[in-house]
Amino acid sequence: QCARLMQERFSIHKVLLTPSCTAALEMAAQLCDLGPGDEVIMPSYTFVSTASAFVRMGAKPVFIDIRPDTLNLDEALIEDAITERTKAICVVHYAGVACEMDRIMAIARGHGLKVVEDAAQGVNSWYNGRALGSIGDLGCYSFHETKNYICGEGGALCINDPELIQRAEIIRDKGTNRQRFFRGEVDKYTWVDVGSSYVPSEICSAFLYGQLEEMDRISDRRQEIYLRYLRELTPLQQQGLLQLPEIPEGCISNYHLCFVLLPTQALRDELLEHLRSLSIRAVFHYVPLHNSPCGSQFAPGLHLPQTEQLSARLIRLPMYYELSAGDQQLVIDAVRNFCLSRVSVTI
Q1: pLDDT at residue 343, as a whole number
Q2: How far is CA 101 from CA 44, 79, 340, in A?
Q3: What is the C-alpha separation between 166 and 163, in angstroms, rounded?
Q4: How far is the C-alpha of 232 from the C-alpha of 133, rounded, in Å?
Q5: How many helices (H) and strands (E) does the chain have?
Q6: In this predicted model, what pLDDT tens digit does every residue of 172-186 receive, in sequence order?
Q7: Residues 174 and 222 reside in one and the same domain
Q8: pLDDT digits over 303-328, tens only?
Q9: 4: enclosing H helix or E strand
Q10: Which range marks the domain in which residue 267 is found?
Q11: pLDDT at 135
């Protein structure tokens, strides 16, 4: 039922539920037919699963920089990163805001590359009338407890190339053609490919279905919270005290998160400490993968200026369905007071 709902709502050929978005990414990497030495272009500013799924196949992540407006992969840098070993592009829709998919798909088609959408944060976000996860060859969703629609831990693989559906079913079900057996297409099922156990429990799926039925109500509430943050904090942006996120024209966000960028890392760290002292849970986000102990092995000495400085200045504000107006006002007041008293005398 969950898969059918998403297929119909998001116009996806086939959706397969998985135990996590990591599992969906691992399936996507296998469906890209990657081997040792193959390269996959992706942002460094992302969760580790984006890269590790492809590394498990022997591929090398090629990290490129991000845009300062959306913190998404900078599509203008893709062409220069393509080599004879490039096999795929993995885009990450940060904060539920779409990458520039028309241009990315045109580049990929021009070079014969697969496109995987890491839409972990992008369920029910849209780009030029198309759902995120429905545009690339493959898309990956997350229903982890930190996302908009949850089942504790869960994910989904979106398959937009019909030729990949049968193999995806096999990989998901331990490498067997068990699904064809259930449909009466073969008289017995057997091992036909390398696979794993990527089928979630029915209990998690049932919980998720209740969430998906309330998708619009959840999105509407998150939009209210997000727009209030922007409305209240815009005067601080106009004074140059912080920077707010942007949603480009043609993009409809699911309002997964709201972040602010402080002028410097030192001020970001001070604001984090200030909020914690008030028992407000605000956090920074990813440590760039190219600076991590494992990721740096694939790109020693790599410098990505936008990724490095933006990640060091970012704070995620509290953002969840049950955030009350009173609690949100406490956050807004704390950020405003800090910026007016501390940032204004520093910059």
Answers
A1: 76
A2: 18, 14, 38
A3: 7
A4: 32
A5: 12, 12
A6: 999 999 989 888 999
A7: no
A8: 999 999 999 999 999 999 999 999 99
A9: helix 2-10
A10: 216-343
A11: 99
148 to each of 66, 86, 314, how far by Cα in Å? 24, 33, 20
178 and 311 in a single domain? The answer is no
Provide the whole-model pTM. Answer: 0.95
Confidence category of residue 342, pLDDT binned at 50, 70, 90: confident
Alpha-carbon span 283 to 129, nearest angstrom: 32
**Is residue 187 domain-shared with residue 106, that is, in the same domain?**
yes
Q: How far apart are CA 177 and CA 193, in angstroms?
A: 9
CATH of residue 75's domain is 3.40.640.10
Tokens 């088609």, residue?
109
Q: Are residues 204 and 235 located together in one domain of the fold? A: no
Whether 187 and 309 share a structural domain = no
Region class of 203: left (phi > 0), else alpha (psi between -120 and 50), else beta: alpha
Alpha carbons 24 and 40: distance in angstroms, whole number: 16
Radius of gyration of the chain (CA): 21
Mean pLDDT of the region 178-196:
91
Of residues 10, 5, 256, the one with CA closest to residue 133: 10
- CATH number at 331 reads 3.90.1150.10
- Residues 41, 130, single domain; the answer is yes
Positive or negative, the CA dihedral 97, 100, 106, 111 is: negative
Q: 187 and 329: one domain?
A: no
